[in-house]
Amino acid sequence: MLTVDNLKFSYPKHSADVDDKGTNTAEMQFNLDVQAGEILSIIGPSGSGKTTLLNLIAGFNSPSSGSIIVDDVDITSLKIHQRPVTTVFQDNNLFPHLDVFTNVAIGIQPSLKLTQDEKQHIHHALENVGLADFHKRRPKELSGGQRQRIALARALVRKQSVLLLDEPLAALGPAMKDEIIDLLKAMVEEQNMAALLISHQPTDAFRASKRTAFINQGKIHQIGNTADVLGDSADKVIKQYLGES
Ligand SMILES: Nc1ncnc2c1ncn2[C@@H]1O[C@H](COP(=O)(O)OP(=O)(O)OP(=O)(O)O)[C@@H](O)[C@H]1O
């Protein structure tokens, strides 16, 4: 389970946004929790702080105060590589010169000196994402959806408690998206991970998540049942984002 408790992040304002009082820093503040086995969707306008939230959890950004707790352990001051966290990005970050098997292997053993168990584990992960027969291919010989599935396999073998997904669906068509979301849900449940999924499409949140957090201007504007947050009863701010006001 992941708990983000009163996590604050200060950053320099753009010069155009500096107010009359001359305040030149802005602050974000986040509170949320994600259960093991749950995907919490993160939705919100461009620049609202979605990626910053993920960067704070992964350790790419440092908070000014607050804490990040994973499975009862405070990880707030741990280094990036010490955190029980895996991140999957939109552009999947596969190495173009390495085959699929090696791209996944790097997730568990960057030196690539693999034990027999680890090799089996990688084959199992490739089976799980339906790409067992593709292990010798290079990323350029795969479709966008297949590449994204390889990135998920690499995340899967790392067996970390927290999975951060920064718009991994953005480049996929509707059918492929649904397929990847269903795969993600199965993975997250099987491995009991706490996952955060950034998306710009409310339909993705409805398919992926029982709960959704709407972020606005560096704060959690609303968190709750996806249908309550993004459905007919959504408030004015969210409706405006959804283009319905
Ligand atoms: N380290 C930093 N230094 C300065 N400004 C930062 C830093 N990190 C984030 N910001 C600012 O925080 C704001 C939110 O950025 P962020 O990337 O989190 O938005 P987002 O909601 O993910 O947007 P998008 O949907 O466009 O990806 C932006 O104004 C950005 O410039």
Automatic annotation (TrEMBL):
What domain of life does the native source organism fall in?
Answer: Bacteria
Q: Which GO terms describe its cellular component?
A: membrane
What Pfam families does this protein's entry cite?
ABC_tran
Keyword field:
ATP-binding, Cell inner membrane, Cell membrane, Membrane, Nucleotide-binding, Translocase, Transport
Q: Which residues form the ABC transporter domain?
A: 2-242
The answer to keyword ATP-binding applying to this record is yes
Q: Does the keyword ATP-binding apply?
A: yes
User: What Gene Ontology molecular function terms does this protein carry?
Assistant: ATP binding; ATP hydrolysis activity; ATPase-coupled transmembrane transporter activity
Looking at the UniProt entry, the stretches that span the membrane are none
Q: Which GO terms describe its biological process?
A: thiamine transmembrane transport
Tell me the protein's name: Thiamine transport system ATP-binding protein
